[in-house]
Amino acid sequence: MIELGLARITALLKNTPQTWKAIHVAGTNGKGSICAYLNAMLRASRLSCGRFTSPHLVDRWDCITINDNPVTEAQFQHFEELVKRRNTEQCLGASEFELLTATAFEIFEAEKVEFGVIEVGLGGRLDATNALNHKTVAIISKIGLDHQSFLGNTLEEIALQKAGIIRPKVPCVVDASNPPSVLEVIRSHAKSLDSSVKFADLQSSDFGGELAEKLERHQQQNLLCAYEAFHIAHPHHDLSKQELFDVSANAVWPGRLQSTNIQKVTGRTQPILLDGAHNPQSADALSNFVEKRLRVPGKPVTWVLAASAGKDILEILKLLLRDGDNVVTVEFGPVDGMPWVKPMNSGAILQTIDDAGISISARQDAQVDVIKGLEWASKISDGGPLVVAGSLYLVSDVLKILRA
């Protein structure tokens, strides 16, 4: 279950030194990509780096990496048991995410990393990751409406929660493409803490040629945020801005605009696209990518869709789907370490499409059988574009199927 607050995590970490420098990343969308770009820049500069992102994609421990490599299951379990024992002895009642965060910080300390790149789990001010001791820079990415029951019902309310990661006199980098009212909330909060703000403003001169063709605009914006933060955290680096852009553009961030092959599962020879878009903002970015790079005349897009229970998916579906597209809805399986996460009923997703007035060419309700859904999608698409979207947990299920 989700329990925001810093008392339990602070108690869990009171004897953990945290000697590494932390780069803390909050926001609604783009956090994971920014972390991946930062990791690439740090490694290109020959700096040791730990990275903690959430949720995991395939295994619970793949959300913690040391110098590009996920920690081993044995190492993860060793430190997880240490943290769980501490939690039991002190009767703290820590949440699953708090235990996971403490485990990541313990591993970073044991590995003696120089930098830790930390993605906020939910919100910012009361998120477990905000128990960091040595922040060198904070980053706030694109902010949208998500998790309103925890963070507030307006962009400004949500922005104030995200801005809670800013510390006194610690610089903050902010995605300048956010609405002016959001930028003002962050600016005002930073000023109250005597902290400087660097607005990462994407100019046409920042990206050009091959890089502009390779990266979508939202990816360019995320990369610029990462660069500005890296420059603050490690100002005496040897690499030029263009060199850092180039090395980061090749960073792999699974589950986001990820092209992969499912031939061994369905026989389809053409690649498919995996994207965990699960809110209107990320759905808009995915839609732009699909319209620009995948959709072709005479070939509808075939979608494999799932969503988390309780999610308002109407706006997401209106952004992604076009009349004449094909849709198969599925329900993702149990999420390891996150038992409170449940899938939306697959039939309800199809009903929402009908309610939105979108005319679907062909449809299928595969329910809990993700492989059946992929097989149907592969057949009906007939070599045309095929996209898996709506939930990172569905992306995780597909990646697990491919690994197996």
UniProtKB/TrEMBL annotation:
InterPro entries: Folylpolyglutamate_synth (IPR001645), Mur-like_cat_sf (IPR036565), Mur_ligase_C_dom_sf (IPR036615). It comes from the Eukaryota. Pathway: Cofactor biosynthesis; tetrahydrofolylpolyglutamate biosynthesis. GO terms for biological process: one-carbon metabolic process. It is an enzyme of class 6 (ligase). One of its GO terms (cellular component) is cytosol. Keywords: ATP-binding, Ligase, Magnesium, Metal-binding, Nucleotide-binding, One-carbon metabolism. Its EC number is 6.3.2.12. One of its GO terms (molecular function) is tetrahydrofolylpolyglutamate synthase activity. Gene3D superfamilies: Mur ligase, C-terminal domain, Mur-like, catalytic domain. PANTHER family: DIHYDROFOLATE SYNTHETASE-RELATED, FOLYLPOLYGLUTAMATE SYNTHASE-RELATED. Belongs to the folylpolyglutamate synthase family. This is dihydrofolate synthase.
